[in-house]
Every structure is written in C-alpha cells, then in structure tokens.
Amino acid sequence: MALVVLGKESLDHLETWARDCFKEVRASGSTRPSSEPDNAPSAPTLTPGEGETVAEALAKTMRSPWATPPAMTVDLEPLRGMRQLIIQWPMPPVRDLWRNSPTMVLSHLLGHEGPGSLYAALQDQGLANSLSSGMRTAHEDFSLFQVIVHLTKEGQARWKEVAALVHAHAGLVRKLPPEDASRAWQESRDMRAIYLRFQQIDPALFSAFADYLRPENTLTWRVWKGRGRGRIKGGVDASESGSGQEGGAVEATVRGEGEQPLLEERWYGVPYGVSPTPAKLLQAWSNPSERLESRLKLPGPNVFIPDDFSLFCDTEGQDGGSDSNSGATAAGGRVVQGEAKEGVIKAPDLLETSDEDGVGKAGQLWHRLDTSFRQPRAQVRVVLATPVISDAGAKGRQHAQIMADILHKVLAQRTYDAQLAGLHWGVSRHTCGYVLQVSGFSQKIDLLLQQVVEAFLDPVAAAGGPEEFAKQFQLAKERALMRTKSWVMSRPDEVAHYYTGLALKLSDDLVPDPGHIKAAEATNLEECLSQHKEALAKVLPVGLVYGNTSQDDARRIWKTMTERLDAAGCPPLPEDEYPRSLTRPPA
C-alpha cells in the first residue's frame, strides 16, 4: 500500500493520524503485479549527443510505446454495455510544441462535425452516435493520437468500414495543401484567442502540467497559439508521419458472438484478444477507393468567426435603450411603459408594430441594448405564434415537439462552425407555437438566424429530401415515446417545476397519462408535415433582440426574417386569431 497524507497540520500531527488510522493494515507478503504484458518489447535507449541535454534529445526522438511491432487489433468484451472503436497512432513528442498546438489542429480537422466530415459520413449511414479526436497521452519521448467512435448497432457490425473511413479521412489530412493547413491553424488560433479573451472563471489544475510549463504560462497554455508557423508545419508533419498504419493500434469493443477471447486482463478480469491487423486490411486502409474519399471533405473557411468586438453602448450617438430613465416608447412615440424606477430592470423598447393595439401584420419587435454586462454578445428570440399549435390537442403538440426535435438533428451539421465560433441556437415548441433562438457574438447572429429560419420554413429540404426526413421522423418519434413514458421517473423537483409552470401557463409539456402516450404512438409523418404547413399559413412573429445590438441592427435583422417569411408564402395571422398572451387589455 502507498499512502499520501496532505493537511495544514504539522508533520508530527499528520504522522500520528496516519499511524492511528492505518496501523491495522499489514503487508500481505505478495509481490506487486507488473502492469507490463509478458514479453513486452522495451523502448529503444535514448542517448543524447555531445553537448545535448536529455530534454533536447527527447524533443527530436520518438520512442514508440510499442517499439516497432506491426499494427495490431485489440478486441474487448466490456463489463458494461458500450460499442466503441478507438484507433491510435504513435507520434513524435509534441510537448515542446505546446505554444503552437499542432495536435489541436489535427483534432479540429479529424473531429469536425460539419457537412462532409468524417462524423457526418458515419452518422448519415447510421454507423456512429458520436466521434472525438485528440491526444491520448503526451510524454517527453512519444505521443499517442486517437480517434474514438461511439458506434451504433449497425456500426458495431460494420466496424471495419468505420475504420476504413477514419483512415481515409486521415489520408485527406496528409494531402492537405499548405495554404489550407495554414488557414485551419489560423482559424484555430483565432478561436482560441477569442475563448481566452472572453473566458469564464474556471478551476485551474496547475499540477498536471507544472513540470514542463513556466509559472507565467499556466493560465494560458490551453488557449495559446504562438506565431511560429514554421514550427507548426514541422509539428503537423511530425504528427502525420506517425499517422500511417505501421505501429498503430485498433481497439474495438466489437467481438463477434462466435469468437472466444483468448486472454483475461489481470486487473479487472476483462476478456480481450490481441492480434496483428491483417495485411490485406491494412492495404485497404492505406489506399482508400475514390468512392470512399469522395464522401469526405475537410472543413472549409469558418464564416462565423467574429472579428468585431466593439460595444454599441460606447458608440457616440447610440441610444442607451431601456436602461435610460425616460421610459420605453413605441416606434410612433407612444409610451408603452411608465417612468423607469431606480433598481428596477427596465422593459425593452417596442420598435415594430403596425396598429394601435401593439400587434399588427408584421408582428412585434422588441429591443433592449445591454449596458450592464458590456459583452459583444447578443440574443435574438422569436416566438412564431400560431393557433394551430396553441389550440392543438395532445397529438398535435407531439407533432410539434417531433418537428422541433427533427430540426435540431438536421441543423446540427450545418451549424457546427457556428458552435465552434461561440454561437448557439435552438428550436423548441412553445405554448403559442414555436420559439427560434440564436445567441453569441453579435456580429454573426443574423447569419445564424437566417440558417435556422430557412430550415424551419422547409424542414424536408433541410433534412436532405423526403427519404431522409422520414428516417429522422421515425427516430424523433422513438425519442418522444421514451421521453413521455419516462417522465414519471423524473426527480421530484422537476415534477414540481412542471406543475408550477402548468399552473402559471408557462409550460404545457405533455403529461404522461395513457392518453398522451397513445397520442405519441399515433403520430405519423403525413400529419406532422401537414400540421407544420398549416402552422406556417397562420403565424405571427414576435421577437426580442437583446444585448450588443443597435436599434438599426435589430430592425435590419427583423426585416430580413419577415421578408423571408413573406417570400415563403406565410400570410399574416388574422387579428381575431391572435393569442391572448400577446394581446394587452386596453389602458
């Protein structure tokens, strides 16, 4: 047994505690089992050159943990249910390249989730649920880079095809032109710089890397991007030189039903088998077909990365909005709020309306300029109110929820760049209809909102066609059924929160009684699409633009969205069908 005692007390005091608490522990007399496998090859001996330090020798020497064996495959039978494929490649040491982070660029290129990416290709075929890539471990004399794929049942049965796609995508990285590699590095550097500039308070675990970082770098090393482009190119080349199949490892929790594991792991008793990867399989992975490569592409320029972080509240001539004490006024000058009081959060300004009741054919646009948090971020929240949803029964609300769920899935790939650049979006069902929401750096939120609106107006095209939409509908229906049936297992505080919202008409989530479960089971593709089309024919947009945006920008964003609704054939909602929650009583 090894024991470490840490405390503020004196050493004598700590020793007394340790002896009193652990005096009954006796040595068993057994020898400590080695973690090394039998007959494991030892790494080559490191011999520094004349006048060279050990650190300098390590920085240019690669000592693979597997010495120089052929590529191998490890099959595992996990103790708990999981389906996972891990592909590892040994690489030269990269610790001394921490300022340039070549492995972060590799992780970005291999782990991207946008259209044409490795993950998109696997997901579109129903082979993977998630994918990640990055360093497995980094030491002074070698590194291990890995790609982890969480497989579906279909992916488990076709894991060799999954591995072939991974190697094909790695091949694209090796062929990446220098100018594209430079752009990918620059984008990664820009995003890390933005993250560092606007990062939130986070625990700092210095001890994990204090052995090779100077004290002044311990806070910034994870987001630092140096200026040494030559060093970056060398680091990427070094990483790619180890990304071939020789010396790599494939770890798969995918053994077939008829195969018996040959070995048992000594610590936890996990059955596993180790075998050289067949040469024929390696050859196929090393030379992917054109058909395989044609399904993949590396990420292009990220148009969502912001470069303007100015604050509108500091711009000369900008109105402070509702943070001023003059009260909020409508576009025509009518006061819609009384005089603001000190210490009270002011209401936003009503910028757009077309009748004296505050609700018109163009809906409502509210705006509030933030002068408190002083961040270059903003949020746009649009309620698309429609009686088709607000007056719908249990089945209609299930259809609306399924549609929102489908939109989340089909938009995930095309908005991945926005997520990398610090923007977020959402589509959800509301008591009045639907809610579209985007947030993040204010310079790019209108671009993201346009993508969300386009997908909402034509979800079938966004999904890639009727066949793909039908597939997504079936998956969303299954999730809706599981969600409805398992609601009764929610935590008590969640149940209480639901009923509070229901009483205040803030929520109308589906109560899991037998009738609603039957409604979820009865949902079908044709009725879901028909209801969505009907909802678009009776919609009233109500929006709030809040944060680092001027009134002119808010009007521009709103005009772009409402013009797109008009172009899609969404007529104004008749006045007698306005939701009650959007109609104020007379003064």
UniProtKB/TrEMBL annotation:
Molecular function terms, GO-annotated: metal ion binding
For this protein, the parts annotated as crossing the membrane are none
Cited InterPro entries:
Metalloenz_LuxS/M16, Peptidase_M16, Peptidase_M16_C, Peptidase_M16_M
Listed Polar residues bias regions: 28-45
Q: Where is the Peptidase M16 middle/third domain?
A: 258-505
Q: Which domain of life is it from?
A: Eukaryota
Q: Look up keyword Metal-binding and say if it applies.
A: yes
**Disordered: where is this region?**
27-49, 234-255, 568-587
Keyword entries, A-Z: Metal-binding
Q: Residue ranges under compositional bias (Low complexity)?
A: 235-252
Per UniProt, what is one Pfam family of this protein?
A: Peptidase_M16_C
Peptidase M16 C-terminal domain location? 1-176
Q: What is this protein called?
A: Insulin-degrading enzyme
